[in-house]
């Protein structure tokens, strides 16, 4: 129990609390697709601004993960909770449910209503405290916590269970929206932005980042974040990725321009908050979130061909195989992620041995091209690299692991966003004017809390 409690505090609290006195305002910024190598590539081209300031002035570190990174929000969840996906429950943003044999979002919550959106979402499925929650527990009810983002899942993770306000930019209406999960509803500042109706093309990622930064500044000003002795927390999600991106790496002028635009916006954010709150009273924690890794084209350019494995097709063939052995029945309920789900009700009705069938399916799948290993559920639970990265809800009766050069496909047309890099590049920057502020390098997302408690 003591070990679990220490893990829950999260790696961010190491950066925040090892400083001699927590500043009045802590700003946490998660940037989708931000990579250290891209920052180095841009070094000779930076204009004065936020990303340049991070590279030249901030304490820097590299984040490492000891589980298979899929490119969903499992890394952000790990960084914000300090525990692995097997504990916080978010292996993939979606999971297969045996109750209705369909795929659901981890953030789906039919008991809550969307405000300005049809999406019904919350963080109720997250069983552990996030950074925002631990901040609330440490500093009490008077601390003010606000999160602003570009998509619901990441913004909910940033806001945690106990934020004062939370809102994200809806992809359909291009307005700020939220959920009734947070009792205060849509922040008044977001509502004012919706009413004013900015006319620029906010479908472009640089404009989305600009809108997020502007709203964060408006919330800070109106809510007086950092203006009293109780530390406050402002969390922000940005991105350097275009909606159609297939890699986190810079490919050309569009990506370079997006980095430069974010550099400008974050520079404005840093400058304004330092003026309003005082340089010694604010700190910025900025991290990159791996989403796509290297593209298939990049890997193929160096002679490493990337191939796709269709688990749906493999599951269909496996069903035929089981019919040949046990009769014409629906032996497989579905598949998703890395897992195949057997029809446990039917197997029980027939009086069959579930573990024997799991082993037969695993052995059958092992013969498919691209499969490195296939484990029955009870065996998968004994494989550390699987148990760390797979939540219970995402582990079916048989778990499939692919060879390094293979991608998993969701269906006949769509590949799962899967980071090919075995060690994805995830930079962390701490911009603080406290001379005692330090970051270990590299930093393991799960074990860092031990450094805090020494």
Relevant terms:
36% helix, 454 residues, 2 domains, ten-stranded mixed sheet, disordered C terminus, alpha/beta, globular, Alkaline Phosphatase, subunit A
Overview of this structure, please?
The protein is an alpha/beta fold and 454 residues long. It has two domains: 325 residues, Alkaline Phosphatase, subunit A (3-Layer(aba) Sandwich), CATH 3.40.720.10; 103 residues, Gyrase A, domain 2, CATH 3.30.1360.150. It is built from 18 helices and 18 strands. It has a ten-stranded mixed beta sheet, with helices on both faces. The chain has a four-stranded antiparallel beta sheet with strand order 12-13-15-14. Strands 3-4 form a two-stranded antiparallel sheet. Helix 13 packs across helix 15. It is globular and about 75 Å long. The two termini are 18 Å apart.
Radius of gyration: 23 Å
Distance between the termini: 18 Å
**Overall pLDDT score:** 87
Under the CATH scheme, which class of the largest domain? Answer: Alpha Beta
- CATH architecture verdict of the largest domain: 3-Layer(aba) Sandwich
Q: What fold name goes in the CATH topology slot of the largest domain?
A: Alkaline Phosphatase, subunit A
Q: Please tell me the total number of domains.
A: 2
Q: Report on the biggest sheet.
A: 10 strands, mixed
